[in-house]
From TrEMBL:
Stretch list, region Disordered: 1-23, 215-237
Molecular function (Gene Ontology), one example: translation initiation factor activity
Statement: the UniProt record of this protein carries the keyword Magnesium: no
Keyword Ligase: no
Organism field: Umbelopsis ramanniana AG
Descriptive protein name: Eukaryotic translation initiation factor 4E
InterPro entries assigned: TIF_eIF4e-like, TIF_eIF_4E
Family statement drawn from the similarity comment of this UniProt entry: Belongs to the eukaryotic initiation factor 4E family.
GO biological process: regulation of translation
Pfam families assigned: IF4E (PF01652)
Keywords attached to this entry: Initiation factor, Protein biosynthesis, RNA-binding, Translation regulation
Biased composition (Polar residues): 228-237
Domain of life: Eukaryota
Length: 237
């Protein structure tokens, strides 16, 4: 069949009935409106596996950051090295980002990924972080290997999916690559509500399935005063 249909022949000497013409116009209008209405309806993967336009919004927008400051970085150079990669606000956009960035296991030593709520910089000095702290777990490289990629993913999903208790307390998460270990950290707004922090820490430990590994909580004020290398956890779960 031709892509352009041939119009039906009409005898110009025979006038078309008025009622028939009106009926034809009405039917054509209704057909167009119905089609337009159908086109406007969101299509899910259950309707069309290849072409669908539904996106599922997250409760918060999140920004992914990256830095690789090197061994001799100070606070100023580290801040300058911190790069904002992308902000997303739907589940689909999260997967588009996660599936197209370098896996944690392949990052260079000293590299860090940071995922924080939009508007919050992954720095102690940010107003959302200045009174808070972080849960951290160190994972030996020789025992963790490629599993770090899944552990980081589970951490991200717990954050963006609001799976942690008191989710408003969570500001972001960090994964760090060091010479002999990986470190996953979860940052919080406050550091003095032990009951709230215990709930968050226990759920994170359960999410990562690390029952026999210590999960330490350290207030940012301690790390800022003593330095990360000299800081020990305020408490451990």
């Amino acid at each position: 069949m031709s892509a352009v249909e041939t119009a039906p022949s009409v005898d110009p000497t025979t006038p078309a009935p008025v009622d028939a013409t009106l009926a034809s116009d009405v039917n054509a209008t209704q057909s167009t409106e119905t089609k337009g209405s159908e086109d406007d309806q969101p299509v899910t993967i259950f309707h069309d596996r290849m072409n669908y336009n539904v996106k599922h919004p997250l409760h918060n927008e999140w920004t992914l950051w990256f830095d690789n400051p090197g061994k001799k970085a100070n606070v100023q150079s580290w801040s300058q090295n911190l790069k904002e990669i992308v902000t997303f606000k739907t589940i689909e956009d999260f997967w588009a980002v996660f599936n197209n960035i370098v896996k944690v296991s392949r990052l260079d030593i000293s590299s860090n990924y940071h995922l924080f709520k939009k508007g919050v910089r992954p720095e102690w000095e940010d107003p959302a972080n200045e009174h808070g702290g972080k849960f951290s777990v160190q994972l030996p490289k020789n025992r963790t290997g490629e599993a770090i990629n899944d552990l980081w993913l589970y951490t991200l999903l717990a954050c963006i999916g609001e799976q942690l208790p008191n989710e408003d307390e969570v500001t972001g998460a960090v994964v760090s690559v060091r010479k002999v270990f990986f470190r996953i950290s979860l940052w919080t707004k406050t550091s003095d509500n032990r009951e709230v922090l215990d709930g968050i820490g226990k759920k994170l430990k359960e999410t990562l399935n690390i029952p026999n590994m210590p999960l330490e909580f350290t207030p940012h004020s301690d790390a800022a005063t003593k330095g990360p290398s000299e800081t020990t956890g305020r408490f451990t779960i």
